[in-house]
Amino acid sequence: MTNLFLGFDVGTQSCKALVIDAERREVVARAQEPLELLAGLPPGHMEQHPDRWIDAVQRTARDVLAAVDGAEIAGIGVSGQQHGCVVLDDGARVVRPAKLWCDTATSAEAARLRVPTGFTASKLLWLKEQEPHHWQRVRRVLLPHDYVNFVLTGAATMECGDASGTGFFDPHRRAFDAAAMAAIDDGLPALLPPLSAEGALAGRLSARGAELLGLPAGIPVAAGGGDNMMSAIGAGATRPGVVVVSLGTSGTIFTRADRPVVDPEGLIAPFCSSDGAWLPLCCVMNLTGVTEEIVVLTGLDHATLTAAASAVPPGADGLLWLPFLLGERVPDLPNATGTLLGIRPGTLRPGQLYRAALEGTSLNLGAGLDRMRRLGLDVDEVRLVGGAARNPLWRAILAAVFRVPVEPLAEAESAALGAAIQALWSVRRLEEPGLTVDEVAQPFVRTTGARTAPEPELVAHYASAAARFAAAVALVHGAGTAR
């Protein structure tokens, strides 16, 4: 059997591709292509055109395949940003740009459907009511990674992990929810592709897909999944007890569970994993985008800003940032804006602002993790993924806020890695049906050794800061945090 497997992660800010060698158990090639949101849209509207994703997949494939022998590629996996809505017409053409997970223009529809803002369901109801001329053309509804799979294979499928983030899926039964679909449109079931079983293939590389990637037709394409589900595989959250925090445009906290974990307030998503289990998950919409605003404002890079922030004492000289620049999912404040409290003369400096951004985003993540604890999930340590995990100051703040050690994984691009590992698992299962994804994933999962333990003084400080943060959210927004 050939030993190379290709994984893609089609995200909001970029498309990443990497190739793993199954025998050497390591990444042997990688590439990245930037992606941008469509410009000029009204506030709250966050969209990308799916054709741009395909262009990025093609470019990253070309780059990684320049470093390896394409004839050795034995499988392909695709990770994609969750919740996006891709609608196709009867000619399989994209009807309109895809609304993304961070789109809050459909918050009123989300409230009516009683689903979290950003879930796919609200986008479909919005499309039906606000753009009926487009809705009338829709013949197929796909999620972002489903659309990439469709272009590569010619087959339309959906898998339970990504489907569980739509708002019309029952995670207990791992099946579509008829009542939730009917609340959107009676015709929705006919627009959805069939669900694939865990570990199944989405199909095989078609002639069109082969031409796109520069690979032979017929290569197996795994079912893939949402970026969080694929990141769980790439981070080793393929067994209970491994808690992962992903530091990206959004921030997520997730762990594998052998049963559904249901939050009565709906803040912790009861997602399915992409390997037959469940993946309770907290998602905050504002994370690295907040620190990027300081980069843009000051013209300084993250290393310089981190050094400046390290010289500022905990508490950022009194600044408290409620970092809800894009609205927020946890707490449920889809129309919120960011608020900077405690401004005094001399505090609007790069170091203070950057530290306040790190602390505000970390305190919001910490509220989500505490809520997961109260739902019965054990947290002994946290694995960090994403480029921001390399920031030592951020790690120290997170360890203190979380009250447990944190450690970055060696492979920051855990979603692309997870997609490649899932492809390896799916291909091997053709000969070994009982093989678990955990058996396949664990040899690829390595930590950096940069383990950060919580400092007692910082733990005490951020416990007090968390109470101030919660009180400020209640004061400004009239709402509680995830606590």
Task: Give an overview in words.
The chain has 17 helices and 23 strands. It has helices spanning 50-65, 107-113, 120-130, 132-135, 144-153, 160-163, 178-182, 188-191, 207-213, 227-234, 288-298, 302-310, 350-374, 392-402, 414-429, 437-441, 456-477; strands at residues 4-10, 14-21, 26-34, 47-48, 73-80, 86-88, 98-99, 140-142, 158-159, 169-170, 175-176, 195-196, 201-204, 220-222, 225-226, 243-247, 251-255, 269-272, 278-284, 320-322, 339-341, 382-385, 406-408. The strands form eight sheets. The chain has a six-stranded mixed beta sheet, with helices on both faces. The longest helix has 25 residues, at 350-374. The protein is globular, with a radius of gyration of 21 Å. It starts with a strand and ends in a 6-residue tail after the last helix.
